[in-house]
Amino acid sequence: MPKLWHFFAVIMPKAQNLIKTEHLTISTTPPIVGFLTRLVATGLYGKNHAEAAERLLSRAIEELIANDFFSKIPSPSADLSLAKNKKV
Q: How far apart are CA 19 and CA 37, in angstroms?
């Protein structure tokens, strides 16, 4: 009788994010939710709408960074320091 070998995937816990996370709430339209649902169904964009939206947002920001977009606009911290130095 031939030996049957079975391989089972070892499920490893997701690595803890070393960067502090913040909670963000967005409102969107039903068509956008539909697109997020379709992305989740592919298995490549997370397990729910929130994960899919976060992955899309992260990719968009990575693209902006690669295109040096943020060097062309003032940073929010620079705006805050200007406001603090401004005398009323």
A: 27
